[in-house]
Design a protein that fits this description.
heterodimer; A: about 800 residues; alpha/beta; FAD/NAD(P)-binding domain; 5-stranded parallel β-sheet; 26 helices; about 30% helix; about 20% strand; B: about 110 residues; mainly beta; Rieske Iron-sulfur Protein; 10 strands
Chain lengths: ~800, ~110
């Protein structure tokens, strides 16, 4: 018989945990859910838009009753658990019935705090917590003109805004003199006050309520200072308290909340708890992102996978009031050890403050334009050293050399037809509709349903902002480091370290050691692991071709019609009449549809069938041409100009430098593609300053530039250093490639890698420290011993035949 | 059941976690081999944009299309949700070490 799981609480946290359990192992439990409210599971954070009339109740239901039926879950709605017999392992329901459990999940949420003022129990005094409260408010709006909201925090202001939308005149009473003081500093608080007052909201603060007066139904509110406000409705939104009534009654250890450990287990090992009722490492949470993280970890332990710890959340907040953009995250107040970076433009209504500690972002408050919120949040989460772009950080990510997306980043003002994801042709309207119709709550879900940001990823920030805008407020990315893929909990860095420290010399060994969640990985992790193992042990012969993307397996680029392209290497961009003749012969013989000159100074042949490839390669080999690796996460091209051999401005032999660089580095596999260039003078005709490694020759020697990118997001290189001799150029190139090979994440180009680790760090490693540089360069050259075999030659001679030929040819 | 079983080749002709193609004028069929030596056959055409599934990365009982990384179930030919669509699946069976394939696709998918 299956084990029985009883869930107390039919809210977001409980049901998210159940969904995670179903995903991991649908047969793990017989699940029974008890909920006091007479509904399925709905998105509580969306109550504000319901009140404001922007959404209906149906639109905010996450799981309707059919969902429970479809997943064999027994739902007892409108029933409350009044007691738990932990010894006999059963729960007692308010109707007297009893149910036994093997595991119990408490997701009892929180209760709104009602200040016990005189008159708090009058009719018309309510909290803002559930559908019933919203119904009461909408009814009140029909019968009364004036409402008072006690509490100028997030929830209070959303309630006040909603009541105004319903046509009421609203007065907000706030006890201190800054609105949303837990999410805003005083400057942002003032800007917020100004925009709310412009909309017609009356805000009194500091204002302390003395009593609520009325005959049966509320009639007015009296303040401590004697002021009186006539009203037909009082909404108390002064905070929430974890609902621990049941837990403490049955002797489960509680402080402010139900105390849980990092696996969301309470002091009773059979009882788990998630959500707002929980107290974890001294913190309680009232936002949605932490609940999702808890749900994931808790589910993992409930199905006995035993992986993953919940280590607390850094949260960010947004106000769900249309037209007002504010964002805050982390420690945005700071202390005597922190610094502040502030940008303020009162007439545009824009304010940004970052709290910095030791050149790392600790917290952020933004008002007016919040598009960079998710970027600052990433910097916080990754603890990125911001030294190198500190002077630009307040202007946002668009100002870090990005010419691609710049100013269009104003989500709210964008038309529905505006294209968000250029790769997959997904518009703002498509995404918003999918979020609403499919009730999506995370970036991963949006990617799965719409494909937006699932290809090149450059619009991830836009999609995240759109998600935050659409589902509202406290959506946020998970603040812990991201795992490599859904098959593991481990990050790229953890995996690379494990491979090195434990001598893991194959993909299988790595997956076994790190207890992979899927039997043979996925199309995301297998290529990454293959690279990581190969990089750590170049001599171990570990390459697994079945874990390579097709291009690297077939040594040619697959095209949209399943044909392939062939691009031979042209050393430093140079070629000969003999090579050109061989290419022309092949192009004619195989009826090549397109001959094209590439951006990397080479010639590409398009439209070849896979079966033809080895033969063509053989003919090109005969003329001395080899694979250009134009298909690989590998050294691609070294672009050059003709330098001082011909050019009247040339200062050094840039062509020869390019050839030498390419001879040294060809065949090496890298985390992502790697391009180089060498220009003969600062006019820089070879465009060396948008390459991963660029050389600009000057009269006194060579300037070395790194981390450039001409692709999705243009980024000019950073100057690494200047050197005197060609030998030094080669040594630095080898060292730079190796530190990138060893330390970047798979599929991370040098540009984002340098922005993540900081140029200063790279300089410390390979410029300031000569010994270290030589060691990196040596490891690079060692690994090249095993990498510099022309893959075309072997295959032209018959290797890997199965890759290129059909297993069976019919109607031939 | 269909009469048109053909001999395709040996199990060892296909690499583990790999695929080979049965080439025909009316459209190729991809024959897959999983980690535990199960064999599946699908029309070699992704329901998304016709990508050659035979060239994808095989994982568990799924393949990732090489063009846009759609995941297709090898047993049914259905795209993994939330993507929608299918590639027709073809009956396969083993005769000792020899892989046998029927050229009559299973019912249910128009992408034949």
């Amino acid at each position: 018989m299956k084990e029985r799981l009883i869930v107390i609480g039919n809210g977001m946290a409980g049901m998210r945990t159940v969904e995670e359990i179903l995903k991991l192992d649908a047969d793990a439990y017989d699940i029974t859910v008890f909920g006091s409210e007479p509904y399925g599971n709905y998105n509580r954070i969306m109550l504000s838009p319901v009140l404001a009339g922007d959404k209906t109740i149906d639109e905010i239901m996450i799981n309707d009753e059919q969902w429970y039926v479809d997943n064999n879950i027994t739902l007892h709605k409108g029933k409350t658990i009044v007691d738990i017999d932990r010894k006999a392992r059963k729960v007692i329901v308010d109707d007297g019935s009893e149910y036994e459990y093997d595991r119990l999940l408490m997701a009892t949420g929180s209760n709104p705090f009602i200040i016990p003022l005189p008159g708090h129990d009058l009719e018309g005094v309510i909290a803002f917590r559930d559908i019933h409260d919203v119904d009461t408010m909408i009814d009140a709006a029909k019968n009364y003109k004036h409402a008072v909201v006690i509490g100028g925090g997030l929830l209070g202001l959303e309630a006040a805004n909603g009541l105004m939308q319903q046509g009421m005149k609203v007065t907000v009473l706030h006890i201190v003199d800054t609105l949303m003081e837990r999410q805003m500093d005083s400057v942002a608080g003032k800007m917020l006050r100004k925009s709310l007052e412009e909309r017609g909201m009356e805000i009194l603060m500091p204002a302390s309520t003395k009593e609520i007066v009325g005959e049966g139904h509320v009639e007015k509110v009296i303040l401590e200072d004697g002021r009186e406000i006539e009203t037909g409705l009082v909404v108390m939104a002064v905070g929430i308290r974890p609902n621990i009534e049941l837990a403490s009654k049955v002797g489960i250890h509680c402080e402010r909340g139900v105390v849980v450990n990092d696996t969301l287990q309470t002091f009773d090992p059979r009882v788990y708890a998630v959500g707002e009722c929980v107290q974890h490492r001294g913190e309680t949470y009232g936002l949605v992102a932490p609940l999702f993280e808890m749900a994931k970890v808790c589910a993992n332990h409930l199905v006995r996978h035993g992986i993953g710890l919940y280590e607390g959340s850094v949260t960010s907040t947004k106000l769900k009031v249309t037209g007002i953009d504010l964002f805050s995250a982390g420690d945005f107040i700071g202390d005597e050890n922190t610094e502040e970076l502030v940008f303020q433009d009162a007439s545009r209504g824009v304010y940004r403050k970052l709290v910095i500690d030791d050149n790392k972002v600790k917290g952020a408050v933004m008002y007016g334009d919040t598009i960079d919120g998710s970027w600052y949040f990433d910097l916080m989460r990754d603890e990125t050293d911001i030294t190198d772009f500190r002077e630009k950080i307040l202007f946002g990510q668009a100002h870090l050399g990005d010419s691609g997306h710049g100013d269009e980043n104003r989500i709210a003002m964008m038309a529905d037809t505006a294209e968000i994801c250029g790769c997959n042709g997904v518009s703002k309207g498509d995404i918003v509709q999918s979020i609403n119709v499919n009730k999506l709550l995370t970036l991963e879900e949006v990617r799965a349903h719409t494909k937006a940001s699932s290809s090149c990823g450059s619009c991830t920030g836009l999609v995240e902002s759109l998600l935050a805008h659409t589902v509202g407020g406290d959506y946020s990315v998970a603040p812990h480091l991201k795992p490599l893929c859904a098959c593991t909990e481990h990050t790229h860095d953890e995996i690379r370290n494990a491979i090195k420290e434990n001598g893991l010399k194959s993909i299988r060994a790595t997956m076994d050691f790190l207890e992979w969640d899927s039997p043979d990985g996925c199309s995301k992790c297998r290529p990454a692991l293959n690279y990581y193992v190969m990089c750590a042990y170049p001599d171990a012969n570990s390459d697994d071709s079945q874990s390579r993307f097709i291009n690297e397996r077939a040594h040619a680029n697959i095209q949209k019609d399943a044909t392939y392209s062939v691009i031979p290497r042209m050393w430093g961009g140079g070629t000969t009449p003999g090579e050109l003749r061989a290419i022309a012969d092949v192009a004619e013989k195989y009826k090549v549809k397109t001959v094209h000159v590439t951006g990397g100074q080479r010639i590409a042949l398009y439209g070849l069938t896979k079966q033809e490839l080895p033969e063509i390669w053989g003919e090109l080999n005969d003329a001395g041409l080899v694979s250009g690796h134009a298909y690989g996460k590998a050294l691609r091209t070294v672009k050059t100009c003709v330098g001082k051999e011909w050019c009247r401005f040339g200062t050094q032999d840039s062509t020869q430098i390019g050839i030498d660089l390419e001879k040294m580095t060809w065949g090496s596999w890298t985390p992502h593609k790697f391009k180089m260039a060498a220009s003969g003078c600062p006019r820089n005709c070879a465009e060396a300053t948008i390459k991963d490694f660029g050389v600009v020759c000057v009269d006194s020697g060579y300037e070395l530039h790194v981390g450039g990118n001409g692709g999705i997001k243009v980024r000019a290189t950073d100057l690494l250093c200047a050197v005197k001799t060609a030998e030094e150029v080669l040594e630095y190139a080898a060292a730079f490639m190796q530190i990138y090979r060893e330390q970047a994440h798979y599929l991370e180009r040098t540009a984002p890698w340098i922005e993540r680790v900081g140029l200063t760090y790279v300089k410390e490693q390979i410029v300031d420290d000569e010994e270290q540089r030589k060691a990196f360069a040596e490891r690079f050259l060692f690994s090249q011993k095993f990498a510099q075999d022309d893959p075309w030659e072997a295959r032209a001679k018959g290797a890997e035949k199965h890759e290129f030929e059909p297993i069976k040819q019919l109607n031939a | 059941m269909s009469e048109d079983w053909i001999e395709v080749g040996l199990l060892s002709d296909i690499p583990k976690l790999g695929a080979r193609v049965v080439s025909r004028d009316t459209g190729d069929i991809a024959v897959f081999r999983t980690a535990d030596d199960e064999i599946f056959a699908l029309r070699d055409s992704c329901p998304h944009k016709g990508g050659p599934l035979s060239q994808g990365i095989v994982m568990g009982n799924r393949v990732a299309c090489p063009l846009h990384d759609w995941k297709i179930n090898l047993d049914s030919g259905d795209a993994v949700a939330p993507d929608e669509g299918c590639a027709a699946s073809y009956p396969v069976k083993m005769d000792g070490e020899t892989i046998m394939l029927s050229l009559t696709p299973n019912e249910g998918c128009p992408n034949k």
